[in-house]
Amino acid sequence: MEAPLDLFVSGIDTPSHMIRGRIDAVYVDADATIELVDFKTGRTPAKGDPSAETQILIYAVAASDAFRYAPEQIRGSFVYLQADGTEALSVPVDITPDRIDQTRSWLHETVARIDAGPSGTNPGPWGQRRDFHHVCPAAV
Description:
Helices cover 23% and strands 29% of the residues. By secondary structure, the protein is α+β, with helices and mostly antiparallel strands. The protein has a four-stranded mixed sheet with strand order 3-4-5-6, with helices on one face. It has a two-stranded antiparallel sheet with strand order 1-2.
């Protein structure tokens, strides 16, 4: 079942901001454990990519803060759908109370940096492929 999320995050000495989104699927087991799943197409991220699990970890913060699940009750995974029709690949994400707390802190710090004003850009080589590259002065 797809689930909407509204997560309120504040920076340091800043008002709350709302992060709105949809989790592709939320499954509740008989033991009240939930699994947060995001379906993807294409390749899995490069090994060691520090941002690869960020999306599911933000969902875990929302499950803890907005849905009121204990961190110990939360699991997560990405499911990569294969264009050639072969079996989908499920990649679990290690969700722990510490990782949820670290992600929550990162969200607060990020909101504080956004509130502080422009911080420069670093669009990388993918800049031309962004949907809004035509209005982004940093597009390469």
